[in-house]
Amino acid sequence: MNVHATTHDELHAEIADKFDTDAMAQESTLLNPRFYTTDFDELDRIDVTPVREEWDKLIGQMKADPNKGHFKKTEAWDKVDWDAMEPGLKRELIDFLVSSCTAEFSGCVLYKEMKRRGKNPDICELFNYMARDEARHAGFINDALREAGVAVNLGFLTKAKKYTYFRPKFIYYATYLSEKIGYARYITIYRHLEANPDKRFHPIFKWFKEWCNDEFSHGEAFALLMRTDPKLTESFVNKLWIRFFLTAVYSTMYVRDHARPAFHEALGVDIDWYDQEVFRKTSTIARQVFPVEVDIDHPRWMPNLKRMERAFRKMEAAEKATGLSKTMGKLTAGAQAAFAFASLYLIPVKKTTPPESVRLEPAF
Ligand SMILES: [Fe+2]
Ligand SMILES: [Fe+2]
Question: 114 with 252, same domain?
Answer without folding.
Answer: yes
